[in-house]
Design goal:
Helix content is 53%, strand content 12%. α4 crosses α7.
Length: 216
Amino acid sequence: MSGIFISFEGPDGAGKTTALNSLTPKLKALTEQEIVVSREPGGSPIAEKIRKIILDIHDQEMDDRTEALLYAAARRQHLVDVILPTLNADKILLSDRFVDSSIAYQGGGREIGTKEVAEINDFAIDGHLPDLTIYFDISPEVGLSRIRKDHQQAMDRLEKASLDFHKRVHDSYLKLVHDNPDRIVSINADQAPDQVVEDAVNVIIQRFPNVFNGGR
């Protein structure tokens, strides 16, 4: 495969999705390769159906391991339907979340074990990890405060979880950053949105200078 796979991670309220929407046109102006943007859970028709089940606020009785397995199932379908075809076509895939989210949220947040969740997802992704992961770091307190101030966005089932849950998620993300320095780059998400986007774009340019060079 000759394409490039970049994932974007962060706790709830980090502004990851907003930043991704802003940086995508900037990246498109810097390369001749086609850029495809996707998300998890979801990204393809079947995976989007699984997403609705996972995030439904009425499914409060869902078992934690069921949740982890559903995420892995959605990820596998997304990989087969979107990620691999995009990379095989020599395109650039930007994914709003990937495997690190499950390790942090279900493994750490739900306390079912980061090792166990990683093993479930190893089967799902079959060795296909991002070439680069950008982690938007923000404290759980600030992130949740941002979400609660956004009256236009209804909180999903995971966002409604306790502060302790989100602290465990954050701690798990920090461990992933520490354990994967060659793949994961952390940026400070508690900055002005324009600065966060600039930092993320700079990380990508520095990692792939021959691809993002003004389209030359």
